[in-house]
Amino acid sequence: MSSGQSTGSAQSKSSHLSATLLPPDYTPSDDEEFMNPLQQEYFRQRLLRWRAELLRESSDTLESMQQENLAQPDLTDRASMETDRSIELRTRDRERKLIAKIDEALQRILDGVYGYCEETGEPISLRRLEARPIATLSLEAQERHERAERTRRDD
User: Fold this and answer.
1) CA angle 150, 154, 155 (to 5 degrees)
2) Which of 124, 136, 130, 135 is nearest to 42 (CA)?
3) Per DSSP, what are the bridge partners of residue 116?
4) What is the pLDDT, as a whole number, of residue 15?
5) Which one of 48, 57, 65, 76 has the fewest beta carbons within 10 angstroms of its own beta carbon?
6) Structure confidence at residue 14 (pLDDT)
7) Domains assigned to the chain
8) Looking at residue 33, what is its pLDDT?
9) Band of pLDDT at residue 88, cut at 50, 70 and 90
10) DSSP per residue over the chain, as a string?
11) Neighbouring C-alpha atoms within 13 Å toward the C-beta of 94
12) For the whole model, what pTM was predicted?
């Protein structure tokens, strides 16, 4: 069984237990304990919705591509369709990688380490997690990482 499959079954088990805890208008706040059960459930549901949306778009793309007919008589039309298809496939490939990161974030929630910087162990700000729920580094650690990348590229 792959980790994606085991994560899915664990997620479905935990979703029935904790989904009722989250009020519909809940938003994480700095005034509460960091990564308390409500915050964990909030981000878990957000990640699951994002993942479902990406999978739905991927399915729509696949269906659309199966219905397309590349046997266009006009070479310009055919070239345009092939270009569009290529762009769509690249987009879906990026989204496939994003789904893997979402699955990793969901696993971090199950493991109890979600929201904490992989480098420093410090909490990642709620604002950063709202903007990028798959973040694994605090803003400061991410900036250090990006500066180091630029330095290596410049050398």
Assistant:
1) 120
2) 130
3) 123
4) 43
5) 76
6) 43
7) 1-19+26-114 (1.20.120.910), 115-155 (no CATH)
8) 96
9) confident
10) --HHHHHHHHHHHHHHHHGGGS-TT----TTS-TT-HHHHHHHHHHHHHHHHHHHHHHHHHHHHHHH-----SSHHHHHHHHHHHHHHHHHHHHHHHHHHHHHHHHHHHHHT-TTB-TTT-PBPPHHHHHH-TT--S-HHHHHHHHHHHHHHHH-
11) 5
12) 0.75
On the CB side of 86, CA atoms within 13 Å amount to: 6
Q: So what's the pLDDT on residue 153? A: 83
19 CB-near residues (< 8 Å, 6+ apart): 41, 45
Q: Is the pLDDT of residue 11 over 80?
A: no
pLDDT (mean) for 83-105: 92
Tokens 């070239």 belong to residue: 79
15: tokens are 């979703």
The answer to whether 103 and 125 are in contact (CB under 8 A) is no
Instruction: Write phi, then psi, for 123 (nearest 5 degrees).
Output: -60, 140
The reported pLDDT for the residue numbered 67 is 72
Span 113-125, mean pLDDT?
97
| pLDDT recorded at residue 4 | 41
